[in-house]
Write a structure and sequence with these properties.
This protein is α/β, with parallel strands linked by helices and 260 residues long. The protein folds into two domains: 133 residues, 3-Layer(aba) Sandwich (Rossmann fold); 112 residues, Immunoglobulin-like, CATH 2.60.40. The protein contains five helices and 14 strands. The strands form three sheets. A five-stranded parallel sheet has the order 2-1-3-4-5. A five-stranded antiparallel sheet has the order 10-11-8-13-14, with no helix packed on it. A four-stranded antiparallel sheet has the order 6-7-12-9. A hairpin with a 3-residue loop joins strand 6 and strand 7.
């Protein structure tokens, strides 16, 4: 089977011609192109629609095609970030992402956390060999000090999953959002939303200042192994997440993931 490339086109009206050119270039160099037009509908969690396609092991590269204007939209950035979290959780943080910019300039350092490692390239006639090289490059192993995933299910809501990485245990866990709010939480086995949960010393509405952001956090003191996770239902669309193991001192280790 040919290696595949998944192409997300952010603006159909503006970039459909560029998308056709990119599909032709990918096919010319022996890769199997597939993709979709982005749906900027956060309330419907439309960001999750292509996740299963991106989890196909034959897909070796995710290309996001769009203008700097599209990539500056907070709702588009948020949706792409959640889709990126889902892909990285299941396929590894080294899974290759390429941003192909059809107009304007995109500064890589301004991208949200899940897109930080993406290659940012202008749309050009010389893209084909670069795409082939990226798609055939061995995926690097990128170690992170946490597990983070997201679930978007109509009728159930937008849930984030967090827990310790392989081989570690957290004695308690907290999770906060900058913007938006949390309205439910639970603890259970990793990789699936829990049907029931026993929470130890649950805490809600904690206020945390970190950098220039204010977070609202919930927490529990349950012990989490790498087979357990903390799940939280988040309403609205936060600009950043803050989470980590619980600590009684000032030396708490926390992680911040930007989403916009």
């Amino acid at each position: 089977m040919k290696k595949g490339v998944w192409i997300t086109v952010l603006d159909k009206a503006r970039d459909e011609a560029s998308a056709r050119t990119l599909h032709q270039a990918v096919g010319k160099y022996g890769l199997a192109p597939a993709g979709h037009f982005w749906q900027d509908r956060l309330q419907e969690m439309a960001w999750s629609a292509p996740l299963e396609e991106l989890l196909n092991p034959e897909i070796s590269l995710w290309i996001i095609l769009g203008s700097a204007e599209s990539l500056a939209s907070e709702t588009i950035r948020y949706g792409l970030s959640l889709l990126g979290l889902g892909v990285q959780s299941r396929r590894g943080h080294g899974f290759p992402i390429m941003l192909v910019v059809t107009g304007g300039e995109v500064q890589p350092e301004t991208l949200p956390t899940p897109l930080k490692g993406a290659d940012v390239l202008p749309m050009s006639a010389t893209l084909g060999p670069k795409i082939v090289a990226k798609a055939n490059m061995p995926q690097p192993k990128v170690a992170v000090e946490y597990r983070l995933d997201v679930y978007g299910v109509q009728g159930i809501g937008q849930w984030f999953e967090v827990g310790p990485p392989p081989g570690q245990t957290w004695s308690g866990v907290m999770f906060g959002v900058a913007g938006g709010d949390i309205n439910a939480h639970g603890v259970g086995p990793a990789d699936r939303l829990p049907e029931r949960s026993v929470l130890e010393y649950p805490m809600k509405g904690l206020k945390i200042e970190f950098g220039d952001r204010a977070f609202t956090a919930w927490a529990v003191k349950n012990q989490l192994t790498d087979q357990d996770s903390y799940y939280l239902r988040v309403v609205e669309f936060p600009s950043a997440l803050l989470f980590g193991p619980m600590s009684e001192g000032d030396d708490a280790e926390v992680f911040v993931v930007t989403l916009k």
